[in-house]
Amino acid sequence: MTADAVRQRETGAGSRRRARELVLQGLYERQLSGGSDEAIASSLRSSREFASADAEYFGELWRGVTDRYSALIDTVAPKVDRPIDALAPIERGLLVIGAFELAHRLEIPYRVVINEAVELAKRYGGTDGYKFVNGVLDKVAASVRGDEIRAASRR
User: Fold this and answer.
1) 89: number of Cβ within 10 Å
2) How far is it, in rounded angstroms, from Cα 132 to Cα 130?
3) pLDDT in tens, 46-103
4) CATH topology of domain 3-143
5) How far apart are CA 95 and CA 24, in angstroms?
6) Whole-number Å distance between alpha carbons of 139 and 141
7) Helix (H) and strand (E) counts for the chain?
8) What is the mean pLDDT of residues 112-121?
9) Angle between helices 55-67 and 69-76 (to 10 degrees)
10) Do residues 151 and 136 make contact, with C-beta atoms less than 8 angstroms apart?
């Protein structure tokens, strides 16, 4: 799939964004309540909002971030200027989602990954949380997608 096709799919119906929103909601619940991943995913799938989400992407993203949560935190932690536990749950969740997509969904351009995380941070995070999310994911992208970033800068 070309980068343009991915961008069009990302911005088209917003179904992937809705999937990301639901995963973010699930991570928030997971962080605060400690519920099981299966129970949280089941609850999200039965929500009214799920009808407008890309169900397949939701499943992939949920499994990816929950199965690799510790490794994703380890990827993000060196790029953050404070302890990970001190981050607001929304920002922490967005960083995990962004780190997963940057490292494991290489067909999605890094700029799209960062933009999606920033837009969700503007909607759900603290006042300037989007700036923080942008800065951290820029650093993560540089470490996991350096070749893509260098190629984009030569254009």
Assistant:
1) 15
2) 5
3) 999 999 999 999 999 999 999 999 999 999 999 999 999 999 999 999 999 999 999 9
4) N-utilizing Substance Protein B Homolog; Chain A (1.10.940)
5) 10
6) 5
7) 9, 0
8) 97
9) 70
10) no
Coil, helix or strand at residue 73: helix
The residue among 82, 80, 72, 78 whose CA lies nearest residue 102 is 72
CA dihedral 138, 141, 75, 92 (to 10 degrees): 40
The model's pTM is: 0.89
Place of tokens 């942008």: 134
pLDDT (tens digit per residue) in 12-56: 448 999 999 999 999 999 999 988 999 999 999 999 999 999 999
Question: Do 137 and 113 meet the contact criterion of CB atoms below 8 Å apart?
Answer: yes
